[in-house]
Design goal:
This protein has helices spanning 66-79, 107-115, 124-137, 157-160, 166-170, 180-190, 241-249, 255-264, 267-272, 278-286, 290-314, 324-329, 331-339, 350-354, 376-394, and strands at 5-11, 15-23, 28-37, 45-50, 55-60, 87-92, 103-104, 142-147, 197-203, 207-213, 216-220, 319-323, 368-371. The protein contains 15 helices and 13 strands. It starts with a strand and ends in a 5-residue tail after the last helix. Helices cover 39% and strands 20% of the residues. With 399 residues, it is an alpha/beta fold.
């Protein structure tokens, strides 16, 4: 391969995605992608595909780790005589109060990131581990951190500030917002077609919503951590803080038990009695399961309330975008969210919603409705190449 490639590493709690991108002159093109799923489980798997989706390599990953999956994928790329990448980009969920811009990874950045572990104790240690593993695999290659919080650094204090003492705000206790790379990818693709007042709903296992004014985030549902906001697959979203105080005071839970419950045993799973996947919930709801029906109603009602509230923040609404796994694939959720927003001029075309090709708005709708694919990994590749170009310009000798 003669083209200069960017290797993108995107880690989840039990999965690892890798993508190798080259620039075709207009955008980043995916050449190879690797997916390790079920990490830590007996039934884990790892697959490497080419740009046409053909499986090039695959094998079981019995109780494997993120680092093992990365090492295996790198080994496969080398077997295929793929040249060393120009750069490596990492999705980093949270960088704390001092790391809010995409940037090259340096020893100083790593120190800051280690100090920010407590902001995202599930995600940041994984990122640190994979940065070290990638450095071992490609010791001479520059690495870049792309932060999910970066898009939301434009939040005004009225949105970023919690109703707590100023001293806590100054120490970094504030709304950061997440899924920023997903939101950036939507804004990038809309380009000149992005209207002034847009709400983007990133709906997946993790879910959040952002109010975007002229391309800038001015409010978002997730807060200090990715735990806040609307109910999610296994995360609670926002709660009355008195619930937590009650559970602690009555001896029902300490901090570790609360963390387990709020991150892994709450949300749709808790409401439905054990189901977190929206596809399964919809199937059960269609068969009359009352708890599954309730879980979907609570989820859609929470989204609808935020969309209406953000229309007030934006002074109106021109465009509502659905993205993320649920946003892209659940016609029921999209329809239920839009159904009671008719008072705002939202009208969905039922036929288009069932088979979306992008636009799902009825002809009479005063608000544009779009379904768009989230491109977090491609956005990381875009940022990395842009930072490389900028760095080259800064280091160019003066004539």
């Amino acid at each position: 391969m003669t083209q200069e490639s960017i290797l993108v590493i995107n880690t989840g709690s039990s999965s690892l995605k890798l993508g190798l991108y080259v620039n075709d002159g207009s955008d980043e093109k995916l050449l190879f992608d690797g997916l390790a799923d079920g990490i830590g489980r007996d039934d884990g798997t790892i697959v490497l595909r080419g740009d046409g989706g053909s499986v090039l390599r695959s094998e079981a990953l019995h109780r494997g780790t993120q680092e093992e999956a990365l090492k295996k994928c790198v080994g496969w790329l080398k077997e295929l005589s793929i040249a060393t990448p120009l750069a490596i980009g990492h999705r980093v969920v949270h960088g704390g109060p001092n790391l809010t811009e995409h940037q090259r990874i340096t020893p100083e950045l790593l120190r800051e990131l280690r100090a920010a572990v407590h902001f995202a104790p599930i995600h940041v240690p994984m990122a640190l581990s994979l940065i070290a593993a990638a450095e071992q695999a490609y010791p001479q290659v520059d690495q870049f951190a792309c932060f999910d919080t970066a898009f939301h650094r434009t939040l005004p204090e009225v949105a970023a500030r919690f109703p707590l003492p100023r001293a806590l705000f100054d120490k970094g206790i504030r709304r950061y917002g997440f899924h920023g790379l997903s939101y950036e990818s939507i804004v990038h693709r809309l380009g000149d077609d992005l209207p002034p007042r847009t709400v983007i709903a990133h709906l997946g296992n993790g879910a959040s919503i952002a109010a975007v004014s002229n391309g800038c985030s001015i409010d978002t549902t997730m807060g200090l951590t990715p735990l806040g906001g609307i109910p999610m697959a296994t995360r609670s979203g926002d709660l009355d803080p008195g619930v937590l105080l009650y559970l602690m005071r009555t001896g029902h839970a300490d901090a570790e038990a609360l963390e387990q419950m709020l991150n892994h045993d709450a949300g749709l799973q808790a409401i439905s009695g054990g189901v977190s996947d929206m596809r399964t919930l919809e199937a059960k709801a269609a068969n009359g399961d009352a708890e599954a029906q309730l879980a979907i109603r609570i989820f859609c009602t929470a989204i609808r309330k935020v969309v209406a509230g953000y229309a007030a923040v934006l002074g109106g609404l021109d465009l509502l975008v659905f993205t993320g796994g649920i946003g892209e694939h659940s016609a029921r959720v999209r329809g239920d969210v839009c159904q009671d927003l008719e008072f705002m001029g939202v009208s969905v075309d039922t036929a288009k919603n069932l088979k979306p090709d992008g636009n799902i708005a009825a002809a009479s709708s005063k608000v544009r409705l779009r379904v768009m694919t989230s491109e977090e990994d491609r956005q990381i590749a875009r940022h990395c190449r842009s930072m490389i170009v900028e760095s080259t310009k800064l280091n160019r000798p003066v004539d």
